[in-house]
Amino acid sequence: METLLKVLKEKGYKITPQRIAIYRVLNNTKEHPSAEIIYKKLEKEFPTMSLATIYKTLEIFKKSGLVQELNVGENSFRYDANVKDHPHIICLKCNKVDDLPENLFTHLKDEVGKVSDYKVLSKQLYFYGYCPVCKGE
Amino acid sequence: METLLKVLKEKGYKITPQRIAIYRVLNNTKEHPSAEIIYKKLEKEFPTMSLATIYKTLEIFKKSGLVQELNVGENSFRYDANVKDHPHIICLKCNKVDDLPENLFTHLKDEVGKVSDYKVLSKQLYFYGYCPVCKGE
DNA sequence: ATCGTTGCAAACTATTTGCAGTGTG
DNA sequence: CACACTGCAAATAGTTTGCAACGAT
Which Pfam families does its entry note (chains A, B) (predicted)? Predict the structure, then answer.
C-alpha cells in the first residue's frame, strides 16, 4: 500500500480515496477481479463512483506498473496487483483464476529468445482445466 | 480442407461456400486473423456476407475443433486453424502474432498437473516482445 | 488557484441475437 | 421440401471519451 502512494507521487498522479480503494481491493484478493467486479465490491463504500473511474484508474495503474492485465479468454480483462511474471490457471467451469508458482517457468523467456528472433520482454502463461471443486462434479 | 468437409458432415453441419471460404482464409495464412480481418479478406469475393456469419461460423469451427481462439491481449479474438497446443509470440509494436515451436513446452501441462490440484486440459502460452523488424527501430 | 480527477452520459467496438428469406442435403 | 444457414438490423457487453464540476496539492 505504501507502494501505491510512493509510485503515484513519483509519477505525478494525485492520491484519491477512489484510487486507494481500488488498489486495496486488488491487493486484498486472490480473485483476479475484472473492472466490473471491483466496481461491485466498492459500490457500498463509494455509491457515486462510476465504472469509468475504475477503468481510468486501472489504466494509470497499468502504466505505472502497479497492476498487470490478464486476458484469460473471457471477453473482459482481469487485473492482478501481483505484477511479477507468473502463470495462471483458469477453471473452465467456474471461471476461477488461480496463480501458479513462478519458479517452474523462469527459464522460458530465455529459451524463447534463443529459438526466435524476437526480443522477448514478457510472457503470459494460461493453463485451462477443472479446479479441485469442479473436477469432482 | 478435406478435414473441413469431413468434420462438418460428421457433426451434421451444412457445407456452404461461406464456411469453405472462411476456413480457406484461416488455413492459408500465418497471420492469426481476427473476425474483422477475415471479413475484409472475403468482402470482394462475398460482397453480401455479413460479419455475423463469420462469427457464427467461427463458433461452429471452435466447437468442432477446427480452429482455436487466441486472446493475445487486444480486445478482440484471433483465430488459428492450427489447433495443436502451441505457443505464440506477439510483437508489441506491430501486433504481429507468430507461432513458436511446440516441442519446448510439451512437458508443461504435466508439470502443472503435478503442482496444482487442477485437472489440466489445455494451455495458452503468449510471449511478448519486439519482432525482428520492429526491434531494430 | 491550478490543474488533475471524478462522475455522468454518450460514443464506440467487438460480439451476439432475432428473424424473415434462402438454399443445402 | 424441411430445416439449418445467411444476412440484415438491432441488441448487448465491455470499454473509452468529452466535459462540467470538484478537490488535492
Answer: FUR
